[in-house]
Design a protein that fits this description.
CATH topology: Aminopeptidase
Order of helices and strands: EHHEEEHEH
Oligomer: single chain
Structural class: alpha+beta
Mean pLDDT: 93
Radius of gyration: 14 Å
Shape: globular
CATH class: Alpha Beta
Number of domains: 1
Strand content: 15-25%
Strand order of the largest sheet: 1-2-3-4-5
CATH architecture: 3-Layer(aba) Sandwich
Helix content: 25-40%
Low-confidence stretches: none
Largest sheet: 5 strands, mixed
Length: 136
């Protein structure tokens, strides 16, 4: 089952990211950061549950211009079961309902398995745009 995360899910989300986080995710995870995300975008963090346990997570955010998906993670023992696909499809549905017509997915450049997943979901690698990042 895929649903929006709640405040009481934060410890499980942080634990999942601790176990299955992308090597490309360099921003520190904290209870306060996830809490702020839930305050600003109550349905922007999706979780997948199996037998009452959170086994997958996706941030599906809307900035008023386009949808953005990132921090997709599924516990290793639960991979290859369609969980990531269900999270992304639910993200698509929620973003489409907000008016999104285009979605960007942030994926580590060296993460071939992740890139294969996004390609299988109909995404194309944009070779024309570079991402610039600055810490505040």
């Amino acid at each position: 089952m895929v649903r929006p995360a709640r405040d009481d899910d934060i410890p499980a989300v942080l634990e999942l990211w601790g176990e299955a986080r992308s090597a490309a995710a360099v921003t520190p995870d904290s209870h306060e950061a996830v809490e702020l995300l839930l305050d600003v975008a109550p349905d922007g963090l999706l979780v997948a549950e199996s037998d009452g346990r959170i086994v997958g997570v996706l941030v599906a955010a809307w900035d008023g211009w386009r949808g953005n998906m990132y921090r997709l993670a599924v516990l290793p023992a639960y991979r290859r079961r369609g969980i990531a696909r269900r999270l992304v499809e639910e993200g698509h549905a929620r973003l489409r309902a907000k008016g999104a017509r285009r979605v960007t997915a942030l994926v580590g450049s060296n993460e071939e398995e992740a890139k294969s997943l996004w390609r299988a979901l109909g995404y194309e690698l944009d070779e024309d745009i570079a991402r610039f990042v600055r810490k505040l």
